[in-house]
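Q: Start with the shorter request: fold the first protein.
A: Done. Sequence, then structure:
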Amino acid sequence: MQTIFDWTFDNSYARLPDTLFSRVTPSPISNPRLVIRSTDCAQLLEISDSTDESLAAYFSGEALLDGMQPLAQKYTGHQFGAYNPELGDGRGLLLGEIVTRNKQRWDLHLKGAGLTPYSRMGDGRAVLRSSIREFLASEALFHLHIPTTRALCVISSDEPVYRETQETAATLLRVAQTHLRFGHFEYLFHSNKKDALRSLIDYTIEHHYPECAKQSDPVQSLFRAVVHRTATMIAHWQAVGFAHGVMNTDNFSIVGDTFDFGPYAFMDSFNPALICNHSDWQGRYAFNKQPQIGLWNLNCLAMTFSDYLSREQLISALQEYDDVFHQHYMTLLGKKIGIAQAQEKDAELIGNLLSLMAKTGADYSRTFRFLADLDVEKRTSRARDEFNDVDAFDQWCETYIDRMSDEDISADARVALMNQSNPKFILRNYLAQQAIADAEQGDYAEVRRLHTLLCHPFDEQPEFGHYADLPPDWGRHMEISCSS
């Protein structure tokens, strides 16, 4: 088959100690066909053109490109607070690492590629449902300016797989700076593979944090950088109302990208204690606990650095987490209400708005988006309609108007700032579910339409206006399964 992928492979992970992986050949899914592709991700990978046939062949496990060296990564991790040594790529393979003509390096990871030594009791397959959800979420977060992995395409098949019910197998080609997880470091530390751990730390600095190599203590600089990136990522999650749902350490990227999409949710009516994963019956990964779980996970990672950094160095870096998170979160929330120059009193103003939203069940995204059309003279805003207690909103609004008088910014500039900080369109669970239901019947039009919409979340897009409506009753408070 003639290939349109002009890629140079440099599979650096495969040169690490072989305890970190097993070489595995993909098992192709039957009758592969393209569900959806990301045009801008293709441009990122410098694919000038692509056909349904070529994508279906090379990213269904049917064929390999010259230079690919597929392997399943070995790692461990803390799952719901308990250490699990029996983890690894159970249904995905790192096909290889490409270096583009402009010297960017990208991992190509095929999810749903079949059995590996780490599949445990699984079948090594991904289902169409979860593949579509990851594709849409990763692309949605990217266009919301949130650090994330990407997705090139989803391939469907006729092959049956069994979860709660019978579903169909699919593959997803995930694109990332790296697939290194906190769990890689935990695996080597807890299995006492000290030489391999040192190799991994040096590799991480060389390939993903080269600026740290210039510091007096590169390992300390690396750990501090990971702390900062993780805090920044979660600040973005909280600002946009994104709940990850399963923040196990094996789902945390060493470079601070949102990673491994399972039972996630974008906030509808504001509920700080939102639990989107129906397996999380204790609420460990509730929305309002995400910042503290991020720090908990970093503490797990800190232990793996304990042979190279002192207790005081590790604690010092971890203590920076709260300040980094708070600074980024308040900056992002400030922009959402049109504040360009932060003041100390902003935390109370924003906190009062969030409390009022939670008390009355106001829609998270619509409230912030509608606040941009506030008419100061008439004291009117569409945001007011999102609140059951309009008197309480009016009182808050008076304080807000008073605060805005301190801003050296025009009304037009304020509106522009807010509209570029508050998406009109988010990937609500019911929208994803409708697209998945159609796709499971062989109709991919809604998946593609939703993807087009989410590539421009801040634009008005009047032809898609109904996608910004409140969810129907059946689509509220959906909990999603971990099964994939």
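Q: Next, the second protein, separately.
A: Sequence, then structure:
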Amino acid sequence: MPWNLLKYGFNRSYPADRHFPLSCALKSSYDIVIIGGGGHGLAAAYYLAKDWGISNIAVLEKSYLAGGNTARNTTIIRSNYLTQEGIRFYDESLQLFRDLSNELDYNVMYTERGHLTLAHTDAAMRTARWRAEVNMHLGVDSEVVYPEDIAKLCPQLNLGVDVRYPILGALYHPPGAIARHDGVAWGYAKGAAEYGVEIHTQTEVTGLKIENNRVTGVHTTRGDIQCGKVLQAVSGMSSEVARMAGFKLPIKTIPLQACVTESVKPFLDPIIVSGSLHVYVSQSSRGELVMGASADPYALYSTRSTLEFKEELMMHLLELFPFVGKLRVLRQWAGMADMTPDFSPVMGLTPVENYYIDAGWGTWGFKATPVCGKRMAETLATGKIPSIIQSFDLERFYRFEQVGERGAASVGN
């Protein structure tokens, strides 16, 4: 054990600063209330205070800090999407991630690994070429690679042809990365608190006060609050909270499961995803294999785990990496994914005045944390929708102008 760590442990005065101020009572009113203390809500609070000088903000979280989907994802960061709208949006997020540790003065453990989306069929290869062309056109580093190139990038992969689903090629995205999910959330929370934002955990929103189609307050388990504006950022429960505000979202909530193995020495540098096999895997900085499969095939508000998930996942994972067969699964969990019909988010204005939404993140919410926080902060501060998120407005479903990202969503979260 390092001497400084031992000395710190026995020091009664604890010289390090607190991450957050001591808990305080709710004030009677705030300029802005953010419902949801996950990565997106905390990032929005941070950028509102830092970029726009608005710090009279309450972030309300019904459980512990970042205990929802922020704590239940698999931390993959990439921008190799299919539509121009999606690529620009996620690439801005990736650029923000690159300097996030310096920005927040908090180590989020961001590491670029490279991201391989495997193709096992001719159709998957056509999609890979399509995505690569659109990516390169917009300045995003992606290219189609073939088995001889994959063997150099990830020699551990089984590239044999005597398997059920041989690997024909892949879309290679060098900037693909991972970061520590709780590090991102805590970094934003710490930064927001330093600017004066109040973060209230164990504070559930039970209703909204709407007058003349305008939100004026929030009802919570700790009392009522008056406010000027509200941002809803509650992945997994978006439809239920929106129902409190009196409107319906085109969202279906389904469980998305994942698991990790026991820790082993580092052997897997790139992130491996197969949309055809519905499996993805990366190795964490602690040596665990972080793995997931497809979302469950039915809508359900639950975070239970199932044996079927593990059976399907292991069947395909062992075809890709036969030598991991003796690894033990350490833990298994699930999040609740809010899926929209076009596999793109819902951001910006709602039918209720001064009520804003950040929802519909499906399996791709973590990678969007910085850009969502920054652009939703701009929206709340100015009342204007930034061009980069205009295509994700709720009204697109009424205009039949959907942003179809199903081909690039794969299964990576």
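Q: Describe the second briefly.
A: The chain has twelve helices and 19 strands. The radius of gyration is 22 Å.
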